[in-house]
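S2.1 Query sequence (Pyrimidine-specific ribonucleoside hydrolase RihA)
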Amino acid sequence: PRKIIIDTDPGQDDAVAILLALASPDELDVLGITAVAGNVPLSLTQKNSRIVCELANKPHVKVFAGCDVPLKRKLVTAEHVHGKTGLDGPTLPDPTMALQDAHAVEFIINTLRNEPADSVTLCPLGPLTNIATALQTAPDIVSRIREIVLMGGAYFQVGNITPAAEFNIYVDPEAAEIVFKSGIPLTVLPLDVTHKALVTKPRNEAFRALGSHVGHAVAEMTEFFERFDKEKYGSEGAPLHDPCVTAYLIQPDLFTGRHINVEIETQGTFTQGMTVADWWGVSGRDPNSLFIGDINADGFFDLLTERLGRL
Ligand code: BDR
Ligand code: CA
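Output structure tokens follow.
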């Protein structure tokens, strides 16, 4: 299995992404989960990460708390989407598993130094603060990372937190800039693809029909998450953003994209946090990422439902 570190700000969709990974041990070896401030403050994202591990019945997974504020800005959160706890929807018990003592950034650095070079993939599902801090603190790890596969950004679909910017990039654009300029192989799952992964009613019912604790909890999470998108975008179901990352790692042939240049806007008055994605190759700048544009949504939900059924 491929070794991964999931860097996350749960978030209902983060939770589903984590469940999918933990349900897929043949493909993915989750070395640890690192929490970052994003959808809700760090005190809640680290707690929610542990709630999700216990929901999956995997309390041995290591969870670390990371950065509680973006590199240079005040934290912007998204309770309007995810609710006050970040995991509103199901009623889940407080976690009993411990939080690890080490800081998330220290864990990321030590893991990359100790594991064979090119064997560890980073999977950021929230603002890129932990990842950028690790790259800045320990530049020697840059060449040891196999790949970064992240959820963030947008091109034709543009923004969800401002007209120009997607939430994860907007919250910490300076961190995103460090990651996109790092030269590390990058695969990006932007809003353009995640808004094609919609939890329609039959897909939601399929989660519930699993008849399990996990199936039920996921159905309730996606129902909660959907309220916002229905009102806001008239969407026929919640876009399952972050699970696109873990699904991509398990079954990449569900997705297609292009190698393009992406720069992060950190200055613009109206465009801070925008991913300036050169889809048509007009800039002459070298490609720095595989930007995913399409998904086989039925295949994705088949995979997800089948895997959740294993938990
Ligand atoms: C991203 O922002 C968060 O609200 C979601 O968890 C996802 O990672 C979508 O823009
Ligand atoms: Ca997230």
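The radius of gyration is 18 Å. The chain has a mean pLDDT of 96.
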